[in-house]
Each structure stands twice: as C-alpha cells, then as structure tokens.
Amino acid sequence: MNKNIKYILFIAGGLLVLFKSVYFKPLDEIKAEAAAKMFEPKAYSKDFWENKLIPNLDRAIDLNELMDLLRTNPEEAFTNHSNALGIGNIRYFLVRGTANISSIQEDHMVFELSPNRMVRLATDYIFGNAIRDASGQIDINEFTNTMDFNNVSSEINQIVVKTVLPDFILYAKEGDLVSFHGAIELNQKHIVMDRVEIIPIQLSIQNTAEN
Asked: Which domain holds residue 154?
C-alpha cells in the first residue's frame, strides 16, 4: 500500500471518528429545551405565595409585641424574628396583629395598634423586597442571576396589588377593626419606630365602625 493510499485512509478514519462524536439535534428540540430552562418569575411567585408564604403565616410575630421588644431588647428582636437574604443592616420581619383604622390617606392608611402607637399600611406604592425576604422561605442560591431574583419581588408585590388590596380598600372605613398579616423593613443600626410601614399579605375587617 503506497503512502498516498495510507494517507487517504488515515484522513477518512479521522473524519469518521469526528462525525460519530458530533451529535446533531433538531432545531425544534433545542428551542424546546431552552424554553424549559427559562425562569418564570410569575409562576414561581404564585407557587411561593400559595405553598410557602400563606401556610407559614403562623410564624409571624405580633407587631405590638415586636415593637415592645425593639425598645427593650433590639438585639433579641433582630436575632430571633428578622430575616434577610444578604449582608447588611436592613432586616425584614413577618408580622401580624389587629388595629383600628385611624385615618385613610391617598397612598396609605394609619393603623392604631394601641393608644399612641401608630403604624402605616401601604395601599398604593407596593415595592421592595419586604415580603420576599421576611418570609425566610426563599433561598437566594436557587437563582442564577439577580434579574430573576428581583423579578420575584416585583411579582409578589403585584399579587398584593391585585388580590390583597382592592376589596379591602373598597370597604375599609375609619374606625374599622382590622386583622392583618404583613411584612416590615427595619434598619437594625437606625431603628425608627414612628415610620413603621406594613406591606400587607392578608387583611380582614373584623368589625366595622358605626356610621
């Protein structure tokens, strides 16, 4: 066998090995796999709300009790009752309680938790990470990028806007007694008690004020 024939056979063998090592997929199959891997923040947030957040609302601390603890032992309050998904002074609490509606403003309501103790309930601008992070039910390592992570907060906030607030705002009146679950954000280095704002999760009018 001359050198030319050997060379041709060598090249042919190499091409055969290379061909067998390459796997071709139909374009439709590739697109389907890519779509399956796409993160869906709306679906994720709905599942989180229904199957993780709501079933664990009994873990929320009474807001009156928390505010007392923040005055007497803030370290214990933050250590035992707050959550955060990052390093820093901003922490989040899952809270509950009952309060009377003291006043209704354009973008919030003022709740009277007890005599001379007022907090705000956000009713218009629902933003931030309070519910997502206060729950303690989301692992940041589940996410491959910060965009998906932040989109989850946006979708959770939209659940509040679309399903929690509309009926409540429609029927709530000053003087009504309200039962609530929600989330609050506090800075553990600069605790400002007179600016506590609740991002609502559940709201229920217990008894209405007399007209």
From this structure: 39-207
